[in-house]
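Task card 7
Instruction: Convert sequence to C-alpha cells.
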Amino acid sequence: MPANDEMLSHLTAPLKDPLVGASYGRHVPKPTDSPVEQFVRFFNYPLSSRIQSWDLLPEQGIKALFFSNVCSAIKRDVFEKIRGFPENVIVAEDFYFAAKLLASGYKIVYTSQAQVFHSHDYTLSSLFRRYFDLGAAFSQIPPPLSDGILQNEGKRFVKTCLSFLVRTQQYRYIPQALVHICVKWLAFQLGSKSSYFPKKVKKWLSMHPHYWE
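Output:
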C-alpha cells in the first residue's frame, strides 16, 4: 500500500536518467510491528536515497546489489534486454536481476521518497523456512559476489540491531532479536548446503516445497 500520494512520481523520476535501468522505493513498517521488525525495515530501507552501480560494489557491498520488486520501476527495454527475472532460483530473484542490471552497465536508484507500507510478521518456523530458501538461493552466487559480502552484511546487521535496541531502550526485545538472528543464521547455513540434502528434507525445510520437485 502506498504510504504517500507522490509514491509513483518519486519512483519513476530517476528513470529519466539514461544510465538508470531501475528504481525501487522504501518499505515503511506498520506501527504495530515489533521494534525488531521495524529495525529490519530501517536497516534495509534507510531514510537516505542512494545510487547503486557495479563500480560501487567494493564500497557498498551487498547493498550495491540490493533491489526489491515490491515497490519498483524498471525500464521495459532494459528489462527485455537483460531477459528479466531469473526463473530458476527459489527466492531472491530481484537480487539476481539487480546483479545482471549492474553488470550490463546500468545503475539502480533507491529513492526513499517513494514509500509503501510493507513488512513481515513471520513466526519462527516461517522465518527459518524463509532463510533456508535464501541460503539455497545465495549458494548459487558465483565469485566475486560471494566473497565475504554476505558475512560482512550479517555482522553489520547484528551490531546495528543490538545498538538500536539499546539506544532506544527497548531492552526487553533484545532476547527476541537474538533468537531471530540465530534462527536466520542456522537456516541460511543449512540452505547454503541444501545440495547435500535429500529432496524430502529440502521440501520439509523450505517455504516453497514445490520448487524442489
